[in-house]
Amino acid sequence: MFMSLKQALPMSAWYMILSALGFSLMAACVKSVSDAGIPVLEIVAARAIVSGIISYLDIRRKKISVWGNNKPLLFVRGSVGAVTLIFVYYSVSTLPLAESTILQYLHPVFTAVLAVLFLKESVQRSTLICIVLSLIGLGVMVAPNMQLNDYQQMPYAWLSVGAGVLGAIGSAVAYVVVKKLTKTDDSSVIVFYFPFISLPMSVALLGSDFVMPTLPIFGLLILVGIFTQVGQVGLTKALNCDDANKATAYAYIQVVFSALIGWLYFSEVPTLTTIMGGGLVIAGALVNVMWKR
After folding, report:
1. What is the pLDDT confidence band of residue 268, given thresholds at 50, 70 and 90?
2. Domain tally for the chain?
3. Is residue 32 part of a domain?
4. pLDDT in tens, 58-89
């Protein structure tokens, strides 16, 4: 039933852990930049510029076509990713971090369903256990910070919640599309189509709402793009190594990274519920990688 420890950590797990770390650092930067008054669409555009440059240089290094092979599906991936990013950033910038985190981590559930419907993959028992334990862990970690009564007092709060849910669904769709694309296209090309679509879209929607960032905020905007690239490349490679629904279950480790970053850099001491919830998340991840059935 259980594999040896050496066999229990497939390459997809390491790639997804790297991806989770990148996205955790990105979220910290996005929150800081948004609090400084930078519009969400401007953050999306800045991320697209940095990610686009890095992706393009990587494609040139590999000496492959920047346009890829499955162009229609690549365009779908870029479009879905761009819209999803706007939803997610809007949710993060307008809701407390705890609530937005819960909404973001609905995506593995949607991914598992979509993988069964469109990729004809089977959901293993270990993946289901991982999802259940991880969702319970997330609830334990953030429930004490949930202030549901505030929703009636916050302007556009339910719009923010709806954006978070749509972002989770969009992420699941993007993961399934990426899984299909890994059979025909290089990971760098797949990643490149994200900024290729999101940059013109965000700039067009931003219009005259551009805010000139200060030098420190400009640096954070660049880091948003860099950490995003780390997350995207890790995610794409993880999906290329394993079933979509199983690989994305490793993404829950991002919650633990976020707690550690908050403790080390923002002096946010983890509460007992954070430790308990993190333990459930880790337990779910271990079940997913060590239990073969």
Report:
1. low
2. 1
3. yes
4. 999 999 999 999 999 999 999 999 999 999 99
| 114 within domain boundaries | yes
Domain-embedded: residue 1: no
Q: Which domain holds residue 235?
A: 16-290
Among 25, 87, 19, smallest CA distance to 248 is for 19
Condensed to tens digits (0 to 9), the pLDDT of residues 249-266 reads 677 777 778 777 777 776
For residue 8, tell me if it sits in a domain: no
Separation CA 292–CA 4 (nearest Å): 11
Distance in angstroms (rounded) separating the CA atoms of residues 235 and 77: 14
Question: Is the model's pLDDT at 275 over the cut of 90?
Answer: no
Give SS3 for 191: helix
Rg of the chain on CA atoms, in Å = 18
Residue position matching structure tokens 């497939």: 10
Whole-number Å distance between alpha carbons of 49 and 42: 11
